[in-house]
Amino acid sequence: MTDASGQLPAQPRRDLPSQHPGSPPKSAASEIRSTPVPVSATIGLLTEGPRWHAERGELLWVDILGHTLHRGRPGPGGALEPVATITIDRPVGAVAPAIGGGYVLAAGTGFLYVDAAGRVEELAQPEAGRTDVRMNDGACDPQGRFWAGTMAYDEAPGAGVLYRLELDGTCTTVLTGLTISNGIGWSPDGAAMYLADSGTGLIEAFAFDGATGELSRRRTLVRIQQPGAVPDGLTVDQQGGIWVALWGGGAVQRYSADGSLLATVSLPVDQPTSCAFGGAELATLFVTTARAGLDEAALDRQPHAGHLFRFDGLGVTGMPCAPYRGRIESAATHG
User: Fold this and answer.
1) Beta strand pairing status for 215-223 and 230-236?
2) SS (H, E, C) the chain
3) CB contact set of 117 (below 8 Å; sequence gap of 6+)
4) Torsion of CA 182, 183, 189, 192, to 10 degrees
5) pLDDT at position 328
6) What value does the mean pLDDT take over residues 84-104?
7) pLDDT, averaged across the chain
8) 183 vs 232: CA distance, rounded Å
9) Residue 296 contacts by C-beta under 8 Å, 6 or more apart in sequence?
10) If we measure between CA atoms, which residue out of 182, 184, 165 comes closest to residue 173?
11) Which sequence positions are flagged as catalytic?
12) pLDDT at 29
């Protein structure tokens, strides 16, 4: 990932802003004693966006700075056996399987489609021509629309936008004024949507209209209070628990739908980036992590930074990954 001058931009700070000091937790949380096991064969720079593709029995994830989409399948010992790695010509923020085969990506300045052989086609490009912003995290809603947000390379406050790739291939601007639009997920009944913003340290909740995709009744669900930690990617379990990776916090936390902190699982790395349930029973929590921005001393302390980890025995199962159900049309089709 390079900026307009061709240089690698500064890595995301994701510091918790001082104007958001946090609020006390609504309930005591338990530390879940499950051992994190590194399972990826390769180390990523800014590994993100795990998604379980049940149809293939594979885990999908991306490396934003590596410009790659990875596919892996759990082997007999639990490690992820590489299936394929696809390299893209731009930063890749998020991936979702497409219902007809292949994958949709939030990458660069918009959306892409890539087939299993790695052939890439541009879809809607809402930020076309800009070199100061890129797509970040995203996910499909239960109806099959693909949502993804943006961030400025310099993390300028208010520069982020949340977009929705519609079923007809057009793109809708949903929210503006975000900073680092990040993890996104839906409640099991599909009536609520959750969105993390790493720039503000907030996880927000919205009433969600599945028929139209419209959001309403926006409210702050969680304000992360841990110094130096911010919310990154998230996933929702079958019980409605919201699992959020804490960049800078070395943990994934589980919150209730009312914002109460329920549980924490700790990792041996500082920068977890996202999480998703996978495996045949959706009972394994996969967590992506990053090594970008860590100095030599930090890497010596956490040699597995940049690997994927798995947690088993958490006592909950995840929601299936919704695929993109829309039409695959090139950007030229929509001008």
Assistant:
1) unpaired
2) CCCCCCCCCCCCCCCCCCCCCCCCCCCCCEECCCCCEECCCCCCCEEEEEEEECCCCEEEEEECCCCEEEEEEECCCCCEEEEEEEECCCCEEEEEEECCCCEEEEECCEEEEECCCCCEEECCCCCCCCCCEEEEEEEECCCCCEEEEEEECCCCCCCEEEEEECCCCCEEEEEEEECEEEEEEECCCCCEEEEEECCCCEEEEEEECCCCCCEEEEEEEEECCCCCCEEEEEEEECCCCEEEEEECCCEEEEECCCCCEEEEEECCCCCEEEEEEECCCCCEEEEEEECCCCCHHHHHHCCCCCCCEEECCCCCCECCCCCECCCCCCHHHHC
3) none
4) -30
5) 86
6) 97
7) 91
8) 6
9) none
10) 165
11) 232
12) 67
Condensed to tens digits (0 to 9), the pLDDT of residues 171-230 reads: 999 999 999 999 999 999 999 999 999 999 999 999 999 999 999 999 999 999 999 999
CATH architecture of the domain covering 30-327: 6 Propeller (2.120)
Using pLDDT thresholds of 50, 70 and 90, give the confidence band for residue 30: confident
Q: How many CB atoms lie within 10 A of CB 213?
A: 17
Residue 5: how many CB atoms within 10 A of its CB? 7
Per-residue pLDDT tens digits for 226-278 = 999 999 999 999 999 999 999 999 999 999 999 999 999 999 999 999 999 99
Chain-centre distance for alpha carbon 243: 11
Quote the CA–CA distance of 323 and 211 in Å, as a whole number: 17
Closest-CA residue to 107 (of 123, 122, 121, 90):
90
Between CA 290 and CA 231 the distance in angstroms is: 14
The Cα angle at residue 123 between residues 121 and 124, in degrees rounded to 5? 155
Residue 255 has, within 13 A of its CA and on its CB side, a CA count of: 27
Closest to 323 measured CA to CA, from 146, 170, 173, 158: 146
| C-alpha span between 217 and 242 (Å, rounded) | 19
Contact 100, 114 (CB under 8 A): no
Percentage of the chain exceeding pLDDT 90: 85
The one-letter code for the residue type at 304 is H
